Amino acid sequence: MLIRVQPEITNFKNTKFETGTEPEKNMTEPEVNKETQEEVRLNDRTMRLVGIPFFGIAIPNLTGLFGPLTWQDTFYWLGYVYFIGLAFLIWQGNRYLLFRTRKRFTWFDKPIEKLVLLFMNNIFYTTPLTIAWLCMWYNLSGFSSIKWDVILIVALVNVICVLFVTHVYETVFMVKEQQNEQVKNSELQRAKAEAELAALKNQIDPHFMFNSLNTLTHLIKVDSEKALAFTENLAEVYRYILSQKDQALVLLDDELDFTRKYTDLLHLRFGKALIIKKQFNGSAGKEFLIPPTSVFVAFENAVKHNEISERTPMHIYVDLDDGQLIIRNSIRERKNRVHSSNIGLKNLDERFKLITGKGILAGKEEEEFVVQFPLVSLKN
């Protein structure tokens, strides 16, 4: 249910404050962290240091490349160096081709082209290299003839091993890309939230000044001395607003101290017609955080929408209950009430959602208008 910021709002209980329109955003698209735009880099040094010797030792023994050679023969030991060299060339060559292919195609835009190119790179690089390298092996090691059946088996095994290693590389790349994408999205969301919060904070200034100047205009007409005192107090209040402009959260105690300065402005205008009571222990204000200028926005809303006079004084109660700051004011509807844009509480609701993840509650309860602010506990 859409709750509007006027006294005629219906039932308050279990009703969440919602905004009908989004706040203005004088912002450009948030910049992305440069690191997330860079090419995904893979540190595969350990994998190469382990994989190359492993394949260079295992494949010759499994396929019978050593033939009649035994550990007593010199070429048996030289053969390990020779085949590790082959494994190095196959690994490094296919690695280079894989990285080149990644720059040209991705699995999302051209998956078929990439798959075909990976197979061609593997077969037309690995197979000729393996055949040539093994032919030299048979000649250098003193074998009577070239064993083509063994060469074909080794070439096939090498191709299969390269496909397996390529799959491992691609899997690792996709995992890292997903992680980078999550980091990028997180940074975008954070930058967007910060920009929206800055835009919402900037709306406080003209809104507050508009209401204050209306009050000052009224005092100038009826009491010039009060108008002077109001101007001085207004400077103190605005100094706090400027000092807290870049703060997302402040101590509840500091916020209430600021609110007392603001209520001094209200008392200059309304005198005894405005009665404000705090109904909780003062030390509790040091245990919670709240977005700055929240309380005074609720006070402004109460003053703006209600008739205030010594005959019908306005009562405002500030209480703390279960991690919620509760502000109640008696309802005395203005007879000549003008249409309100509700920017005050709408702005506040958006700020709370961005900072605390929870919106505010606002509505009519019996003969009172009630606003609840979710606080951030310092104990958590």
List keywords for this structure.
single chain; 380 residues; alpha+beta; Heat Shock Protein 90; 2 domains; 5-stranded mixed β-sheet; 3-stranded antiparallel β-sheet; rod-shaped; disordered N terminus
Q: Please tell me how large the radius of gyration is.
A: 37 Å
Main beta sheet: strand number and arrangement?
5 strands, mixed
Mean pLDDT: 77
**What structural class results from the helix and strand content?**
alpha+beta
What is the count of β-strands?
8
Q: Give the class-level CATH name of the largest domain.
A: Alpha Beta
Shape: rod-shaped
Instruction: Assign a percent range to the helix content.
Output: 55-70%
Give the uncertain stretches in residue-range form: 1-38
State the CATH architecture of the largest domain. 2-Layer Sandwich
Number of helices: 9
Quaternary status: single chain
What topology does this entry show?
Layout: H1 34-37, H2 45-63, H3 74-104, H4 111-140, H5 148-222, H6 224-243, E1 250-251, H7 252-270, E2 274-278, E3 288-290, H8 294-305, E4 314-321, E5 324-330, H9 343-356, E6 361-365, E7 368-374, E8 376-377
Parallel strand pairs: 2-4
Antiparallel strand pairs: 1-3, 3-8, 4-5, 5-7, 6-7
